[in-house]
Every structure is written in structure tokens, then in C-alpha cells.
């Protein structure tokens, strides 16, 4: 599915979020403490937007991993265009079996991909494994607004308008119907914090963004 929509993915992300996705990524980066020699893993990197932004703004090495070769191919073109080949490496990697030794990375990020983990507990355990002691994990994911009015508007847009526009532009019948289904099924807020705690993470907190449409989760190993 993600291979099929990879060519339109970036355009639709910015269009369907009205550009707010860029603000959310800035919030994610702003919550991380970087060192000059930090090594970063961006899991479920997609077309590498987060990986590229980290490399460009922080000047550190970033590995972007994803199971979709179509998305990675788009990301590799962007890496080359931005001349960041020395800092950004994109690899095919499964979140439940990350292809790196334990304690490889100082920082791990997952932006709007953790809900797609086939085995969420195992994926979080793997992220914990590849982080160094005191390593930082940041997860950005969609959530459901708590305000009744915003929830009503969000539901209308997310369940009706977004799938229609996504299908129209991407020519894929299922990808943008899958999005609201996966968001509704995701254990958000404190429930997701419990998953993080069970995987071994500590100092866990979360911050709703844009009326609770997305949530930033902050924790460390």
C-alpha cells in the first residue's frame, strides 16, 4: 500500500494537513537534546522528512529505516537533491527486527509510523534495545481530540473528506481509508505510555498538539 502511494505521499501529507505536519515535526525536534556526535535512528522514516530535517538543522548522522522500498526510493532522491548523503543513510528495516546492534543510537524518532507497527510491544522493545543508556525516544502520532466540537469536525474530515481526496489524488482505493482506521485503533495517551513503560522506557510524558489531533510522546531509556 505504501509503495503504491509513495509518489504522491509528500504532496498529500502537506495538502491534507494544511501544512501543520511541518509544525508538528518542529515540535518533535525541539524536544530533543542533540550533541555534535549524536547518532539518530528515524524508524518508519517514510520519505525521510524527519531524517532530512534533523541532518540539515542539527548536522548529525541519521539513519532512516522503513519497510517500504517505494517510500525509501523517494527519500533517497530527496537526500541526493539536498546533498545530505554524508549524513543521511536510508535502509530497509523492520521495526520488530531493527537491523542494528544493541546500544547503537543516542536518539530514536518515530513520526506517524508507530501505529503501523505490526507488533507494537515488540517494536518498542526493539527501539529500547538499539538505544544507548539514557538514549532519547520521541514518538509523534495522530490522536483523537477531546473537545466535542473539534472531535466532531475531526471525525468528519478524517473519516469522509480526507479519504475521498486521498483516493482522488493517489488513485489508491484503500490507503487513505486505512489512515482513520489505524488512528482509531491506536492506544493513545496514557495507554500508549503504558506500552512504553512495559518496553523499559522511563521519564515518560506526552503533550497533545493542535487541539489533540496529534500527540508528542517523550521518554528515555
Concise summary:
47% of the residues lie in helices and 23% in strands. It has helices spanning 2-16, 20-30, 49-58, 69-81, 120-130, 148-170, 175-185, 190-198; strands spanning 39-43, 61-66, 88-92, 105-111, 131-142, 202-209, 214-220.
Break the fold down into its secondary structure elements and pairings.
Elements: H1 2-16, H2 20-30, E1 39-43, H3 49-58, E2 61-66, H4 69-81, E3 88-92, E4 105-111, H5 120-130, E5 131-142, H6 148-170, H7 175-185, H8 190-198, E6 202-209, E7 214-220
Parallel strand pairs: 1-2, 1-4, 2-3, 4-5
Antiparallel strand pairs: 5-7, 6-7
Written description of the protein model:
By secondary structure, this protein is of the alpha/beta class. It has a single domain, classed as Rossmann fold. The chain has 8 helices and 7 strands. The chain has helices at 2-16, 20-30, 49-58, 69-81, 120-130, 148-170, 175-185, 190-198; strands at 39-43, 61-66, 88-92, 105-111, 131-142, 202-209, 214-220. It has a 7-stranded mixed β-sheet, sandwiched between helices. Strand 2 (61-66), helix 4 (69-81) and strand 3 form a beta-alpha-beta unit. Helix 1 packs across helix 4, helix 1 (2-16) packs across helix 6 and helix 6 packs antiparallel against helix 7. The protein is globular and about 45 Å long. It starts with a helix and ends with a strand. The model has no long low-confidence stretch (mean pLDDT 87).
List the keywords.
221 residues; alpha/beta; Rossmann fold; seven-stranded mixed beta sheet; 8 helices; 7 strands; globular
